[in-house]
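Hi everyone, sorry if this is the wrong subforum. Our group has a chain we'd like a structural model of before ordering constructs, and none of us has done structure prediction before. Sequence below.
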Amino acid sequence: MNEKDDIILEALNLLYPAAISPTPLHWNIENRFDEELKYKARTDGGFSLDTLRNRMERLVELGLIEICRERGSYHSITEEGRAYLAGDLDAAELEET
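Answer:
Right subforum, don't worry. Here is the predicted structure as tokens:
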């Protein structure tokens, strides 16, 4: 887990319970959520759409986000993802499994 993962989870949490595909999620993080997420400051200027997609794949593997619809790859944060953001779930435990 890294800062980019946290930003992705925080953005999905802002949109919860909605599901969104990677491209509009990236756009919203860059253009709509910077005030809430401090995205550019936390990542030294941002990260690419490809990085977001790769990190989302990892978050799916960890069970922190889910694919709600394969076609168009719509994602949503899971209850585990919300628990992680609340500090009730240690990411190190997820990575061990």
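For your construct planning: Strands lie at 65-69, 74-77. The helical segments are 3-15, 22-31, 34-37, 39-42, 49-62, 79-86, 91-96.
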